[in-house]
Amino acid sequence: MNIYFACSITGGREFESVYQEIVAALEAEGHIIPTSHLAQSESVQGERALTPRDVYERDVNWVRECDVLIAEVSVPSHGVGYEIAFALQLGKPVLCLSEEQRQVSKMITGNPDPALKIETYSTVSEAISKAGDFLSSHNKNL
User: Is 20 helix (H, G, I), strand (E, B) or coil?
Assistant: First the structure.
């Protein structure tokens, strides 16, 4: 499955190791993740070399091409919020994962779109499991 994985870049990287583990687990299952490099430490520097227009065009094209979007939303990010809304506008299934006790924007938690699923986790393995369940439920619909 082609998965757009969304995570905070400029908003903060305190969950970087979580991003890396989720992406690694999804790739190990054979999924294609064009945004996998964004989970890596060096992505911040690499993204600085791109113009805002380059990032926008690249990312909206990846969202258009994906089957689903999975976002780790424990760290607030304008870009991730935009990507989630854009994917939903296109009718893409979206999973938002956040660590338990993290405050997530009410624009996400209050969204009644049936294509949006919001899950919390206490461990990275639980987040990976919830992502797997989400993908299994949408794999038969694609």
Answer: helix
Task: Give the model confidence (pLDDT) of 48-83 as tens digits.
Answer: 788 999 999 999 999 999 999 999 999 999 999 999
Tokens found for residue 54? 């380059």
- Could you list the residue range(s) of the whole structural domain that residue 116 is in? 3-139
Are 21 and 124 in contact by the 8 Å Cβ rule? The answer is yes
Q: What's the one-letter identity of residue 118?
A: I
Show the 3-state SS of 87-130.
HHHCCCCEEEEEECCCCCCHHHHCCCCCCEEEEEECCHHHHHHH
Percent of the chain whose pLDDT exceeds 90: 83
- Nearest to 74, CA basis, from 20, 12, 117: 12
CATH number at residue 29: 3.40.50.450
DSSP element (H, E) containing 67? none
Q: How many domains does the chain have?
A: 1
- pTM for the model: 0.94
> What H or E segment, with its residue span, contains residue 51?
none
- Count the helices and strands in the chain (H runs, E runs): 6, 4
